[in-house]
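Lecture 7, part B: from sequences to assemblies.

Below are the input chains for today's worked example.
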Amino acid sequence: MSVEHLSAELSPLSVQFVDGIAEVRLCRPEQCNALNIELIQALLKCLTDLQHRQDLKAVLLRAEGTHFCSGLDVASVMQSPDSIEFLLSPMPGFPHNRVQHLALGWKALSVPVIAVMKGYVFGGGLQIALGADIRLTTPDSQWSVMEGRWGLIPDMGMTVSARGLVREDRLLQLTLSAERFNGTQAHHWGFATDVLDDPDYAAQLLLSQLAERSPEMVRAAKRLYRDSFDEVETNRLTLEEKLQRRLLGSAQQREAAMAQLERRPPQFD
Amino acid sequence: MSVEHLSAELSPLSVQFVDGIAEVRLCRPEQCNALNIELIQALLKCLTDLQHRQDLKAVLLRAEGTHFCSGLDVASVMQSPDSIEFLLSPMPGFPHNRVQHLALGWKALSVPVIAVMKGYVFGGGLQIALGADIRLTTPDSQWSVMEGRWGLIPDMGMTVSARGLVREDRLLQLTLSAERFNGTQAHHWGFATDVLDDPDYAAQLLLSQLAERSPEMVRAAKRLYRDSFDEVETNRLTLEEKLQRRLLGSAQQREAAMAQLERRPPQFD
Amino acid sequence: MSVEHLSAELSPLSVQFVDGIAEVRLCRPEQCNALNIELIQALLKCLTDLQHRQDLKAVLLRAEGTHFCSGLDVASVMQSPDSIEFLLSPMPGFPHNRVQHLALGWKALSVPVIAVMKGYVFGGGLQIALGADIRLTTPDSQWSVMEGRWGLIPDMGMTVSARGLVREDRLLQLTLSAERFNGTQAHHWGFATDVLDDPDYAAQLLLSQLAERSPEMVRAAKRLYRDSFDEVETNRLTLEEKLQRRLLGSAQQREAAMAQLERRPPQFD
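Predicted structure of the full complex, as structure tokens:
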């Protein structure tokens, strides 16, 4: 097992690499992990770093303390016109702006992102959560599409990240009411993939299942669903075949098949 | 509070304005609010009137009597080739015909439409209900995609209004069987946003939540989800930013934020 | 009642026609109906035959024995490069390859396909099931997106067939974990339309409801939802009107309406 710490002692974000898994933790627990400009900058830098790592198999996104994220630190961000212009400026290399990248950047990674949400999952925190591929939460977590209270709409990519997950009528109702809902409802409505008493354990279980898959199959699976989403039928089917042809007969695919036939764990290293 | 009555005594439709809310009531209770040509004409005129009002914040759509709407008044409409040609003729200013406008006209309004459905929600009545943005019903309401009994398919825009709400396999099964299902099932399958013993109370609660939102944010929220629906990812994200930039720093947005910080109700008038 | 048997004694597939219903049965019960090259060839031929029958009203797809289908017969198929090239070669007349046609071929038929799944519904079997328009299963059936165990991704059209049925986060989680889930979960997540103790009875009930619909309405209903799926709003609405105009006033539509008004069963023969 190789452990690598990349974050400074006082950073609002902790990033740790263990056996190909990047564990990213929001680290402002005293402020309910509210998004101030330092945490936002750290998240954007982290996403850029992860984008360039070839040795990743998955990302685990979670938070220090009781709450996942209480949303934008309004006092810190909204007062400064410069901060707002920075957030709405284009994210280099992506067809969206920086505040949207805080959520959609996780989807853009080539490996699956699993997020664990407890406590408050409010506003920008909810939208970051929606950027993760698989979202695990507790029954008593508290969620809110909170932007309406500030006279604003959610603008961190939710029209993309929630598509196919949460129905439009529910999104509109929650956006207009800005009311809180718990983790059980969040799961029922599609914000969370699963609701569990111990989502950390469930995340570890999924990571252990991932360890039995070939790294190239894991990346192909993420691409398959993400890149087909916006495509018409013919392009979806072409993508399926293209990705499969790359896997078929590769060293990793043959090892996976041999291990399966011999009823032993595969060895991909 | 300002109340304004726009409907004549014997009209099959009642429209009433109270504090920026238009309450629209189907008024043929003795005929289960079946859609005869007079009610259809009144609905089309009402939708055109509402389209041009600048002072609206929301629409509440409901029905007099026990039943929301038992569908097309077949004896009245189907016998006349003229009526059918009228219904299938283009709705001026819209990319759909008049019978489709009976449902999609609600989506085309710039403010949220909340509908309350009780009793029968059959055929054309079900399709009108699906045109509302947020749909509240009782557990014992009765629904049916009824057109198949007449050798017809549903053609009031359901392929648009039900998209993302009701799964295609369920739509096909209900279209082929033409069977009845209750409000609990309607909610489970996505026809209704919520199922409640007292949907009128729930509608009033949502309207009271809306009263705390700025009028421009309410319209932006409706546009956000409606106009992004048919768009590819890049256009969705551009729309998010465009709508948000219009809100940011406006008088209404600043009042919403100040009220939030000062923990008082906002004043938008 | 007219019965017609088209399958040879030892064929891995049985096809039987009764009163306009084609009943297709996978017939390798001793091998859990695993897809070997003979069964695949028989399915492709069957789909081509059904495509050309004008007298069909519906298709019922099921399996002999305890299990619907345990997926690809890997020993038989994966060992031969020729088999793999055959499966990935274009299906004549369709914008997809042969292995995709095993699932999407059912959608391409002009009549509804109802499938009954019990026991194992694994890998390719799961993907064939998803090609059916209406999918009925038992609570204790066992499902798995199994391809990852072999270092592969699902490539039988699931990005098309599961769209709008199963959420992308669930598809990714099941693809990565390759874990088993039961019929109740399959229904909850959208793989199955309904979960019932006796799905065969439910299939017969739906077929008896279909018998009361006009043949042309049944085909129009299938087309309505299938052909609008990939289309933008305007095209969906145009299709609705086009299909309805063909039905309106036809002999079958008038008979359906007369039977409805006279409260008698319609006669379409």
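Note for the exam: Residues 37-51 of chain A form the longest helix (15 residues). Keep this in mind when comparing with the next example.
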